[in-house]
């Protein structure tokens, strides 16, 4: 299983991501609901319970929204849908990051098992060499005990490495939305490390990150809510048309009605103030998000450069020199030129590297 295959499977089967995608359908439903017109009302009224003298009225009332309320509701719903889409995009990038991290953690864990097996073989070779030296009378049995302790220690390290590999497989399987038994063996090259990008290029790309996209759309949603609350200051008109029949007089008359609330006290001023404050808060959070991403990006870039330099030193200098030292000391120990403690210390240094 390559990294590209793992990423494709995660986007297809990860249950958390699939659940987040349902929010887009919910946002579409909210947008549809926001654009609907208010329903008319049908009323029937009877005056006097005596059939010979009662008056019956049938009235149809239609509310009419003024102040652009419907358009403002639609704008809010569309802005909220934009926030949902931006959040989904952020979740997609976060899932990609988690899968990439889990994928390489599994590769590293598998490499750790391989190195632990080599270390155990190295410790076993030292133990065998010590046994030969003890039987030849060249060293004391105490040196053999040290080699045996080192061999047991490396066996424990191998056991821990196997456990770490199993844990890494569980983590990657959870990210991909599959069981551990269904997870294929990852295929990748740990030696191929990309070079760190330039600082200016990364800083320019900050505004295109999902977090910044979400922050900008939250600002737009806040502004749309301000417009909606401003439209609520205008009262709605209710127009009624109907018919009334008077049994006593035997006459039918038409009814026309008009009603309009008087905004003497409640002009939605509190909700407008709250929406304006939330819109300002969204702008402040957008700036805070940008500064946070800048700081995290620069810190990650410094860590990347430092890690790349460390990898180069380990790969090109430390590991070759450590391997040569262990080989030379092991051969010298078998010839009686070096103490076993020197061999064990060199082995530990190589294993740690």
If you had to describe this structure to a student in words, what would you say it looks like?
With 353 residues, this protein is α+β, with helices and mostly antiparallel strands. The chain has helices at 3-13, 15-34, 69-135, 141-176, 199-204, 210-231, 269-334, 340-352, and strands spanning 41-47, 55-64, 237-246, 251-259. The protein has a four-stranded antiparallel sheet with strand order 1-2-3-4, with no helix packed on it. The chain is elongated. The two termini are 28 Å apart. 20% of the residues are buried.
Write a brief caption for the model:
With about 350 residues, the chain is an alpha+beta fold.
Brief descriptors of the model:
alpha+beta; elongated; Outer membrane efflux proteins (OEP); 353 residues; 4-stranded antiparallel β-sheet; 68% helix; 8 helices
Computed CA radius of gyration, to the nearest angstrom: 38 Å
CATH classification, class level: Mainly Alpha
CATH architecture: Up-down Bundle
Strand order of the largest sheet: 1-2-3-4
Structural class by sheet pairing and helices = alpha+beta
What are the low-pLDDT stretches, counting only 5+ consecutive residues below 50?
none
End-to-end distance: 28 Å
Quaternary state reads single chain
Mean pLDDT: 87
The helix/strand order is HHEEHHHHEEHH
């Amino acid at each position: 299983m390559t990294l590209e295959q793992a990423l494709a499977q995660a986007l297809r089967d990860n249950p958390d991501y699939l659940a987040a995608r349902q929010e887009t359908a919910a946002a579409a439903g909210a947008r549809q609901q926001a654009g609907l017109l208010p329903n008319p009302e049908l009323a029937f009224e009877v005056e006097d319970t005596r059939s010979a003298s009662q008056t019956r009225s049938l009235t149809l009332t239609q509310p009419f929204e003024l102040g652009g309320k419907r358009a403002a509701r639609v704008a809010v719903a569309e802005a909220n849908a934009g926030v949902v889409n931006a959040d989904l995009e952020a979740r997609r990038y976060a899932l990609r990051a988690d899968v990439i991290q889990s994928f390489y953690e599994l590769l590293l864990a598998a490499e750790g098992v391989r190195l632990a097996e080599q270390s155990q073989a190295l410790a076993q070779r030292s133990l065998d060499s010590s046994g030969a030296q003890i039987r030849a009378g060249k060293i004391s049995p105490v040196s053999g005990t040290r080699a045996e302790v080192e061999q047991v220690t490396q066996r424990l390290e191998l056991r821990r490495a196997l456990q770490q590999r199993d844990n890494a497989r569980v983590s990657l399987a959870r990210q991909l939305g599959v069981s551990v038994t269904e997870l294929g063996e990852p295929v990748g090259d740990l030696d191929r490390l990309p070079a760190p990008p330039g600082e200016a290029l990364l800083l320019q790309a900050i505004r295109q990150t999902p977090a910044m996209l979400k922050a900008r759309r939250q600002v737009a949603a806040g502004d749309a809510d301000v417009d909606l609350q401003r439209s609520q200051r205008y009262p709605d008109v209710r127009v009624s048309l109907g018919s009334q029949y008077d049994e006593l007089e035997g006459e039918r008359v038409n009814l026309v009605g008009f009603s309009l609330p008087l905004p003497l006290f409640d002009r939605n001023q509190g909700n407008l103030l709250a929406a304006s404050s939330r819109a300002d808060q969204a702008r402040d959070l957008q700036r805070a998000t940008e500064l946070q991403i800048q700081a995290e990006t620069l810190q990650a870039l410094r860590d990347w450069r430092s890690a790349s330099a460390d990898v180069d030193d380990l790969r090109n200098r430390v590991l070759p020199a450590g391997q040569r030292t262990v080989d030379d000391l092991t051969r010298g120990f078998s010839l009686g030129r070096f103490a076993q403690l020197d061999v064990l210390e060199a082995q530990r240094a190589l294993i740690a590297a």
